[in-house]
Amino acid sequence: MARSFFITGTDTGVGKTYVACQLIRHYVAQGYQVVGMKPVAAGSVLVGGEWINEDVALLSAASNVKAPKALVNPYCFKAPIAPHIAAHDEQVKIDFELILSAYNQLTLLADVVIVEGAGGLLVPLSEHSTIADLISYMDIPTVLVVGMKLGCLNHALLSKEVAISRKLPLKMWVANTMNPPMLAYEENLRTLERLFQELERLQFNN
């Protein structure tokens, strides 16, 4: 059975792709066969007659398993807009079963599968589903990427609350330094560590 992680974030542009690629390179360096997956991507350019998303291209470049694009990126929308709007505009329904089937096929090709989400946990994928619902459906260990910038405390704590309330398999979180680094970085990092621990204690006690 392949080892897998689902990379989500506190927002868009917080470094999910960077962290996903770093994880891929980490496992490749240890001798594993590794593939990146982005189930839903919005925003692509036409290259050689094929629509390519930048995040998908970066994940594929970091991977040492070359899998069919239909498995690596089942849904690739042209416009860089919210996935549920992009899907509606292209008259496509995002099907969790199709995504899970693609993921399961990737687990047969690789030792490690790194799955990158879109935006944050509550980004809609349809009128009635979100990235959080997709994580719950796939049920694989999840990593929360916190973009360390002004406003990250609120975004991170809200994301943690969602993960707890929905019983998502959130296993770890990553503080990703942005450019330029935020003011009072260390103080904000310590605050997040303390408040995350408090939320976890409350969850355990309940």
Summarize the structure.
This protein is of the alpha/beta class. The chain has eight helices and nine strands.
Which short descriptors sum up this protein?
206 residues, alpha/beta, Rossmann fold, five-stranded parallel β-sheet, two-stranded parallel ribbon, 9 strands
What would you say this structure looks like, in words?
- With 206 residues, the protein is α/β, with parallel strands linked by helices.
- It has a single domain (3-205), classed as 3-Layer(aba) Sandwich (Rossmann fold).
- The protein has eight helices and nine strands.
- It has helices at 16-29, 54-62, 69-72, 83-89, 96-109, 131-138, 152-165, 185-205, and strands spanning 3-9, 34-37, 40-42, 45-47, 50-52, 75-77, 112-120, 142-148, 170-177.
- It has a five-stranded parallel sheet, sandwiched between helices. A two-stranded parallel ribbon has the order 3-6. The protein has a two-stranded antiparallel sheet with strand order 4-5.
- Helix 7 packs parallel to helix 8 (185-205).
- The longest helix is centred in the C-terminal third of the chain and has 21 residues, at 185-205.
- The mean pLDDT is 95.
Widest sheet: strand ordering: 2-7-1-8-9
Question: What is the percent of helical residues?
Answer: 40-55%
Calculate Rg over CA atoms. Answer: 17 Å
Number of helices: 8
Please trace the helix and strand order, writing H or E for each element: EHEEEEHHEHHEHEHEH
**CATH architecture level-2 label:** 3-Layer(aba) Sandwich
CATH homologous superfamily heading: P-loop containing nucleotide triphosphate hydrolases
CATH class: Alpha Beta
Q: Biggest β-sheet: count, sense, barrel?
A: 5 strands, parallel
CATH topology: Rossmann fold
Whole-number count of domains: 1
Beta-strand percent range: 15-25%
Uncertain stretches: none
Task: Tell me the distance between the termini.
Answer: 33 Å
Backbone structural class: alpha/beta
Mean pLDDT: 95
Give me the count of strands.
Answer: 9
Overall, the morphology is: globular
